[in-house]
Amino acid sequence: MKLEVQNSLIKDIKFSQTTQIIDHVFFLNKDEMIAELKKIQFVRDVKIDVAKPGDKTRIIPVKDCIEPRYRVDRPQGFPGVTTDSFQVGEGVTKVMKNVAVVTVGDIVGFQEGLIDMWGEGAKWTPFSKTLNVVVDISVEPGLDPHEHEHCTCLVGLKASEYLALALKDAEVDECETFELPGPGIEQEDLKGLPRVIYVQMMIAQGLLHDVYIYGSDAKKILPVLLHPNEELDGAVISGNCVAACDKITTYQHQNNSVVKELYKEHGKSLNFIGQILVPELTTMDGKFKMCDYVVKLCRMLGAEGAVVSEEGYGNPDSDLVMIAKGLEDNKIQTVLITDECTGWLGDSQPLTDTKEEAKAVISTGNVSHLVHLEQADTVLGNIAAISNIAGGWEGSYSSTDGSITCELNAVIGSTSEIGYHNLTVRLH
Predict the structure, then answer these.
(1) Catalytic residue among 153, 241, 298, 341, which?
(2) CA–CA gap between residue 138 and residue 140 (Å, rounded)
(3) pLDDT tens digits, residue range 207-220?
(4) Sheet architecture: strand order including 271-280
């Protein structure tokens, strides 16, 4: 499969009577967009704002982030979710680069998050660098939690589709090409390179902790082999309320850093043979089943090495180290990517489970690290939500000086386990 991604770089967003892109400025008809989104079932009201890098603006509680994309001569939308299902990952896709749709709304679970566009908070989230179209959603009263979250999910995806229409005739500034042969096709220039597969773990635990692949709820399926282009082209969306720090937003699925890095090394230091998506289930039987199935797929594909990334922490740590043991026992060298939950002082056990075979581990940070965020000039959403967000508590927000003290748990994308975040490691 070959996917050509054409980036249109956006330098500013302004409200206008017409939605269009002119000279790298995105002009947005806010009223038209609101009218479109209010057509979605159960939506009572929608507010649209723009938050730009450097603005003293705080966005809370954030549910998802989505990148606007337009497929050239192919169907639009998110297959199996906002449209009928269809194959993605092959063809030309235009991208509104530097722009994100950010959805906010009433808390249903407890694991939405926040984005600060300036100051201390900005350095912890990648979404402080994007021009954010903030969509504040109010739903009809009386919905059950799943209906509520499904509604807000649809609004975010549909909002990105509305923005993406402006890309149809937009100028292209740069192109990226992603192309892999099938895993069974051995090209001459790849011979002798280690066959490496990417194993991506995904929250699939119910109670709003879910991910969708072509619209299918991940907790209802076995591990699935995917061409990496499919994730980059919109086959996978976030529907979960996992802790904000390592929740993989839809935007991050569209820009999976592990996939892109493996593509960079393909044909140089390794042979990237594909991607397996693995549900993280809550039962021990489910965990054993998923682990065994992943190992089987990797063996069938002739993998010699694997990169395994987690989503979330806590009980999925067991899935992570079980997969590592299964692969290493079958002579498949394995590298793990995970964050740590080591307490405010950083001295607690980082993972809830361990295996001797889990010996090559990349840490994306401590979810419990405390941050102190100064008062915002503008709050988009509801500042009081911090007391109900994972990583926040009653008293996190100071009504005296307007500041917030919380854990990185509460900051969207701060310890992303697919590497789409700002933290780095300094060697001593």
Answers:
(1) 241
(2) 7
(3) 678 899 999 999 99
(4) 224-226, 271-280, 195-203, 305-309, 333-340, 361-366
